[in-house]
Design a protein that fits this description.
Blueprint lengths: L12 E5 L3 H12 L3 E5 L11 E4 L2 E4 L4 E3 L6 H8 L8 E3 L6 E5 L2 E5 L3 H11 L4 H17 L12 H8 L3 H8 L3 H7 L15 H13 L1 E4 L4 H13 L3 E3 L4 E6 L4 E6 L4 E3 L2 E4 L3 H7 L8 H8 L6 E9 L10 E5 L18 E6 L11 E8 L17 H21 L7 E7 L1 H8 L30 E3 L8 H17 L1 H10 L1
Parallel strand pairs: 1-2, 1-14, 2-10, 7-16, 14-20
Antiparallel strand pairs: 3-4, 5-9, 6-9, 7-8, 11-12, 12-13, 15-18, 15-19, 16-17, 17-18
Helix pairs in contact: 1-9, 1-14, 2-15, 3-4, 4-8, 6-8, 14-15
The structure holds flavin-adenine dinucleotide (FAD).
Length: 506
């Protein structure tokens, strides 16, 4: 065991702020290793982005629609085994020949699972590009293989690796693969999954997400809240405490470290160690008074750029009218797929993601779907001081107008769909700000920039020695990115090698 490691003893109390995926997985790992855990969640429901809501008898996911690398031998599968998730979380495979479909100006390009299928499927549309597609696939697979934690293999990362894949932009890489403009657009057609920004998003992020779904892609039957519920159940069974409706207001420090948290209702809870599973800016708000956080650190975090937010339309279909769609459709009716976040009023509705919800293992019809489009926070900024449910008629009109533009565009691409819609509901960047506390409703937290990695990356360590962070801002967003991040955070207590070994052995 490394002497520098704070190898805390079992009687220590660890307080985790937030029951998002990162908080719950840290709680699970630490409780399983004998620590006393208290998770404090501000909402009535656990899970953060894993939350769902029900309207008119239909359940809607808010922030996790499909997962990858979940088949035997793949990384997320190993995490699921370790976290005992398979008994509570049931999955339905997406079409292996087209888990994602990139729709550009009415033409459909399938993304298939596995090297051969991926290359064969796209080569049908780009026969001259077969060798380039193979080369693309090989590099993507290689990057994931060489990232030690993502392959659950704790060896050193190759020295050249960081320079090549962390400091190169995904856009530069794609441009080096092919001169074919359309194929370039197709290869980044799912960039909504990481809110990719031209010239900034590092290649490794594109690679990890592509490879994650290339390996296998599944929807969660009945909704992703099953993951949160299962983790809460297991943590409680191991003696941990998970408390809902307990918004943390302050983290209190003495001269050297954090000592307690104060809830909004003024209850004070003491702990030995603290982990925040919230956006770093929210954490700083809880630490307003302490001199342990210097101005320079505070300003760096506050000034970091975040990924753009989204506007979502949740659709309830009339019963048995819309056949279940076993692929996720990324629509782009713009010449440049990369430019989504710079949308104008006129072209905003031209790029969006359309996905069906999965309510059973074999349903032939969909009962619900989501349409997700980009949205900058500025569009809703004028309502930021209003509260949920009472933002006013102008906000409702704004949302209705946006929803109708998206639905009309959906109708253009799927003739006849409008008449099968029974009802729809919407969410805006303000919804995410309210429900998860993410800065300006940002979808995936801090935006990583390959030109300035150290200034666009947040460490799991803070300036306070017994306060750590976890969640999508630490390593990467998404189910696997967040789970890998928990290895780094819980590694402070247990040693990363030790945690990885436990997961590999599960
Ligand atoms: C629209 C959308 C779609 C997505 N789709 C997918 C997908 O298909 N597949 C995939 O893998 N990933 C997807 N993601 C990403 C994924 O859902 C997230 O990266 C991940 O769930 C974030 O987890 P987290 O641990 O960072 O916590 P978060 O989900 O951010 O949760 C933070 C928690 O902290 C709580 N909290 C905040 N403030 C306080 C406080 N003061 N006191 C107590 N608690 C507090 C919040 O209520 C919340 O529960 C999607 C995200 C979004 C937004």
């Amino acid at each position: 065991m490394n002497d520098n490691l704070i190898y805390k003893t079992m009687d220590k109390h660890i307080i985790i702020i937030g029951s998002g995926l990162g908080g719950l997985v840290c709680g699970y790992i630490l409780a399983k290793n004998g620590y006393r855990i208290t998770i404090l969640e501000k909402n009535a429901q656990s899970g953060g982005c894993l939350q769902n809501f029900t309207r008119n008898g239909i359940k809607f996911d808010t922030g996790m629609h499909y997962i990858g690398s979940i088949e035997e031998g793949q990384t997320l599968h190993q995490f699921f085994k370790y976290l005992s998730l398979f008994s509570d979380v049931k999955l339905r495979s997406l079409d292996k020949m087209a888990y994602d479909t990139i729709s550009i100006d009415g033409m459909q390009y399938p993304c298939a699972n596995g090297r051969k299928n991926f290359v064969d499927q796209l080569s049908q549309y780009f026969p001259q590009e077969r060798a380039n597609l193979q080369h693309y696939y090989n590099i993507i697979a290689d990057i994931t293989k060489n990232l030690p934690l993502h392959s659950l293999n704790v060896t050193e990362m190759p020295v050249e690796f960081e320079r090549n894949y962390f400091q190169t932009s995904a856009s530069e890489f794609i441009e080096s693969i092919t001169d074919n403009h359309l194929l370039r657009n197709v290869l980044v057609g799912n960039l909504a999954l990481y809110r990719g920004v031209y010239g900034k998003t590092p290649l490794y992020i594109h690679a990890l997400i592509r490879d994650f779904y290339n390996k296998s892609a599944y929807r969660i039957i009945g909704g992703s809240d099953a993951i949160a519920k299962s983790l809460v159940k297991s943590i409680r069974a191991m003696g941990g405490e998970v408390r809902m409706l307990t918004p943390v207001d302050k983290i209190n420090c003495n001269d050297t470290q954090a000592v307690s948290v104060t809830l909004q209702n003024k209850e004070e809870i003491h702990g030995d160690y603290f982990i925040t599973n919230i956006h770093p800016v929210r954490m700083l708000e809880m630490l307003k008074k302490t001199p342990l956080i210097r101005k320079v650190y505070r300003e760096r975090i506050i000034n970091m750029q975040n990924t753009i937010s989204n506007f979502t339309v949740y659709i309830k279909f009339k019963k048995d009218t819309v056949p279940y769609l076993n692929t996720n459709k990324f629509y782009h009716n713009n010449d440049n797929v990369w430019n989504c976040e710079n949308y104008t009023y006129a072209n905003w509705h031209k790029s969006f993601l359309y996905m069906h919800a999965c309510s059973s293992a074999d349903s032939l019809f969909a009962d619900a779907a989501v349409v997700i489009a980009y949205m900058r926070f500025e569009e809703v900024e004028r309502w930021k001081n209003t509260s949920r449910g009472s933002r006013g008629n102008d906000y409702e009109e704004f949302k209705q107008c946006k929803a109708e533009r998206l639905l009309n565009e959906l109708e253009k691409q799927n003739h006849g769909i409008l008449k099968n819609i029974d009802a729809y509901y919407t969410s805006s960047p303000l919804t995410y700000l309210d429900y998860t506390g993410t800065e300006r409703g940002s979808m995936y937290g801090i935006l990583h920039d390959c030109n300035n990695l150290s200034f666009s990356t947040v460490s799991h360590r803070t300036k306070i020695p017994n306060l750590y962070q976890t969640g999508q801002n630490i390593n990467l967003h998404g189910i696997l990115g967040v789970m890998i991040g928990t290895l780094i955070t819980t590694g402070e207590f247990l040693g990363i090698d030790n945690v990885v070994k436990q997961i590999v052995k599960a």
